[in-house]
Amino acid sequence: MSQDAQTRDSAAPVVPPKPSKWRTFLDSDIVYSWKRQPVVIVATLVTLIMFAAALFAPWIAPQNPFDPRQLELIDAFTPPMTTSDFTGNFYLLGSDSQGRDVFSAILYGSRISLLVGFAAVIFALVMGTALGLLAGFRGGWRDALIMRIADVQLTFPSILMALLIFGVIRGFLPRSMHAEVAIIVLIIAIGLSDWVQYARAVRGATMVEKSKEYVQAARVIGLPARKILFQHILPNVMRPVLVIGTIGLALAIIAEATLSFLGVGMPATQPSLGTLIRVGQDYMFSGEWWILLFPGVALLILALSVNLLGDWLRDVLNPKLR
Amino acid sequence: MSSTPSSDNQRLAQHSAAPVAGHEPGTAGQEPVLSVRHLRVEFPTRHGTLVALDDVSFDIAPGEVLGVVGESGAGKSMTGNAVIRLLEPPGHIAAGEVRLSGKRIDDLPEERFVPLRGRHIGMIFQDPLTSLNPLFSVGDQLIETIRAHLPMNEREAREEALKLLREVGIPAPENRIDSYPHQFSGGMRQRVVIALALAARPEFIIADEPTTALDVSVQAQILALLKRLCADHGTAVMLVTHDMGVIAETADRVAVMYAGRLIEIGPVDEVIRHPQHPYTKGLMASIPGIAKRLDRLYQIEGAMPRLAAIPSGCAFNPRCPHAQQRCRDERPDLLPAGGSRAACWLHDPVDPLPPRQDAEGEEVSHGR
Amino acid sequence: MGADTAVKKSAAAQGEILLEAQDLARYFDVSKPWLNRVIERSEKLTLKAVDGVGFSIRRGETLSLVGESGCGKSTVARLVVGLYGLTRGKLVFDGEDISDLAGRTGRQAASVRKRFQMIFQDPYASLNPLWRVGTIIGEPLRFFRPEMSSTDRRRRVGELLEQVGLSAPDANRYPHEFSGGQRQRISIARALANEPEFMICDEPTSALDVSVQAQILNLMRDLQDEYGLTYLFISHDMAVVKHMSDRIAVMYLGRIAEIAPADQLFENPHHPYSKMLLAAVPSLEGVGKERTVIQGEVPNPVHPPTGCAFHPRCPHANERCKAEVPRLIARSDGSEVACHGVEEGRLP
């Protein structure tokens, strides 16, 4: 038998010294695509700035809008870019009826919006992924049950779903606790209204991966289902989940704002962006436009940039579109 | 459109009057239906420009079936796609020319090229389902194609469609003409696709792996049909396939491709019985046959190079048992070799390379 | 070398039986979901992918299953390795009844499962794209030999890579860095990792180019010689099957039409379907000659013809063929044929 008959492909390039992880990353298709799209670069920068601003709000904001002692009632309705005649405080984006600095309120508000957004997405993602994996991998009646529930839930607009869940959970809690647990109730309400799309995407991807031959090879070896599910299938279905998660973040932020705007979200003492907009609309026609406009613009920019990022990520991770 | 029809015609006439370089032996005396000269297709990428097709030239005469064969990545489908301008962007024709019945078509603006598809160039693809619209009946699709290209009214077109279906061997076409694609079996669907490709009586058909998705027994039926119809209508066919068996029984001439280049072209029995290029020789010897039983198959070492790493000189030189310094430095043109032409310095008429004896001995024992 | 192999082959022919399959059947429920069925009043549909297939494989030999799409050859492979459960029938592997293998889980099945492995068709789908090659090849070792140290395992992976014609450092690369042929070598290395005795190969080269196919087929033959492997080889390509097999079973619509020693089948096929398949193989020897064109196509396996499933395409079919399913009957030349015509002596 000729041993040389099995030499490796001569065309395979000589392995160059392994580049560092960082260099590999900079050379990847994702970075390449990112660099070539100005809109995405701007969206990334804006998103990062807004995340940072929200994270470091206590150090950036001139006042803590949640602390009534820091509010100067006498400075109420100061227009933007004005230094108060009474206290000497400078109001970049003006102040509201309580003398609350709108700029600080936006920083603290986006903190809450982002917190609720992230937590709701993680809640929905974990729940949806788990149910989707179960439905796709096991099939049968579990699949039928989970997907029918998903179908029923999809027939309701998700905001209506969130309102309903919000109402039910609050119904079980004593009124005194409402303000304290508002944020947790919001997260659960938005998360529960949003798990369906994760479950559907994961179920579909799981069924595709399950039938692939590498999974069959693992089954021929006799690996237990748990190992096949978590070592082989789960990592391979996470790609669509991450994309949906990014777009879902924008949707969750808007959902939170909507609920707060409708008055069932964050209370006025702990305003999120949505609460600020609700409060601001009372003054829209009385000349104090800044109370509504600036939180609205902040919400718009935040949701838009996150959404653009999500769209870009979807395109870049989808091999069919490349 | 900027230019008037008459000036366009003049331009086309001028083009067709230009001498065609390197007329091929097989088609002498007849004007070729398709003539491809020095075709080069490039894919610009961020890591540099990939040359997917490099200096490809061939002719196809009326009624002739040219088999284009090669392994994956050889550029055989790319050649077909370049001719009908279905290259995936950013791929584009960077040099060379394509002539259909003497008229240059590679530089036509898109809106003048589109009507050529279907009317002058028929297309048959591997998967019949992608060529047929699932929402319309087979009859509707045929009638629409016929009426788009030929001056016929609805009734005449329907008659024509029935005639075509009968021609491609659909039993009881009167009953099947209003059926939808999914109601046909795989083989019958491919027959419908052939009918559709022939509907406007094109002078040239590109068939890209037309039988790869079909079972062997059906494959034989479809190939026999394709061959007979094209002979009857005088249609020239470019048959793109990876399967030497399909080529052997269907094609009149064969073009063998390797790494985006044409490395051997000639009459089918010459190329199959007496392959001249070392790659073609190795390829033929590596196919298991049903007539003989060997202990080992001949194997060509290594794999086809990636487009990003095509070796200098002859692209086959790293895998070639005869390779010498000249093969690494200089790229050979298609040179007369036996009954065909091969791009190999072994066949240089002025200064032929001596073939390596040991390797030759090996080949003799494995050749058919 | 030819004489050598001939000796080895005849030894294999007398070897003990390694796998015995009796009356294997696997039905799939292909009806629409329950709700659609009730609304559209459609019936329950059963696809009899495999319906009464029996064969045995001796140690060291290669048995091939050949046939067109829908004949059930891949389903048989998956029944043998326990990817599907049996609807009916019995599987005996080296004296042990493994009919219930699909139902056994984890360690219970390990004693049997570690003795056979499978090679799949699609080199792009058969390797987990997120794992390094070394992890992929080491997977059977981690499961079957948990006591093995990671250094030993790495060494073994390196050996395996060298053995299939790759190199040890390739263990650190990812599947997408390899060509189709190289990936199939990786699949083979994974299958070899635990030194199995029996390999089930499901169309291992049909996704590969011919020159790469030759490399892989040669590799598989070399490994068989070296380790005395037994192969169950699935393919639709008659020439590949002829090259690889000692015996060949021709399948049609879930049943075996004919089993015969390879040379016997190619020289003197009995079943009309075997003859048809052989005639349909495109031949390089007869350039320009048209193949014998056979009419018809494989019918939809959900609604197979009555009696002998081949009768609508068979030029020799009579009333009995339409009514009665033929059984496999052994002949004196070593073949077994399921055909009324052959049994009655109407056909040679």
Number of strands of chain B: 12
CATH topology of chain A: MetI-like fold
What topology, given as strand order, has the largest sheet of chain B? 6-7-8-3-9-10-12-11
The geometry of chain B reads as globular
**Main sheet summary of chain A:** 2 strands, antiparallel
Query: Which structural class do the helices and strands of chain A define?
Result: mainly alpha
Q: Give the SSE order of chain B as H and E letters.
A: HEEEHEEHHEHHHHHEHEHEEHHHEEH
Distance between the termini of chain A: 45 Å
Radius of gyration of chain A over all CA atoms, rounded: 25 Å
Task: Tell how many strands the DSSP assignment of chain A holds.
Answer: 2
- Unreliable spans of chain A are 1-16
Low-confidence region ranges of chain B: 1-27, 358-368
* Relevant CATH superfamily of chain A: MetI-like
String of helices and strands of chain A:
HHHHEEHHHHHHHHH
GO molecular function (chain C): ATP binding
Keywords (chain C): ATP-binding, Nucleotide-binding, Transport
Protein name (chain C): ATP-binding cassette domain-containing protein
InterPro entries (chain C): AAA+_ATPase, ABC_transp_ATP-bind, ABC_transporter-like_ATP-bd, ABC_transporter-like_CS, Oligopep_ABC_C, P-loop_NTPase
List keywords for this structure.
heterotrimer, A: 322 residues, mainly alpha, MetI-like fold, two-stranded antiparallel sheet, 13 helices, 2 strands, disordered N terminus, B: 368 residues, alpha/beta, eight-stranded mixed sheet, four-stranded antiparallel sheet, globular, disordered C terminus, BP-dependent_transpt_permease (chain A), transport (chain A)
Write the layout of secondary structure elements.
The complex is a heterotrimer of chains A (322), B (368) and C (348).
Chain A: H1 21-26, H2 29-35, H3 38-55, H4 57-60, E1 82-83, E2 90-91, H5 102-138, H6 140-154, H7 158-172, H8 178-192, H9 195-211, H10 213-221, H11 225-261, H12 273-281, H13 290-317
Chain B: H1 5-17, E1 34-45, E2 48-60, E3 65-69, H2 76-83, E4 92-100, E5 103-104, H3 110-113, H4 116-119, E6 121-124, H5 128-131, H6 138-149, H7 154-167, H8 173-176, H9 186-198, E7 204-208, H10 216-233, E8 236-241, H11 244-250, E9 253-258, E10 261-267, H12 268-273, H13 278-286, H14 325-329, E11 335-337, E12 340-342, H15 357-366
Parallel strand pairs in B: 3-8, 3-9, 6-7, 7-8
Antiparallel strand pairs in B: 1-2, 1-4, 4-5, 9-10, 10-12, 11-12
Helix pairs in contact in B: 6-7, 7-9, 9-10
Chain C: H1 2-14, E1 17-29, H2 34-40, E2 46-58, E3 62-66, H3 73-80, E4 88-93, E5 96-97, H4 106-113, E6 116-119, H5 133-144, H6 150-163, H7 180-192, E7 198-202, H8 210-227, E8 230-235, H9 238-244, E9 247-252, E10 255-261, H10 262-267, H11 272-280, H12 319-323, E11 329-330, E12 336-337, H13 340-344
Parallel strand pairs in C: 3-8, 3-9, 6-7, 7-8
Antiparallel strand pairs in C: 1-2, 1-4, 4-5, 9-10, 10-12, 11-12
Helix pairs in contact in C: 5-6, 5-7, 6-7, 7-8
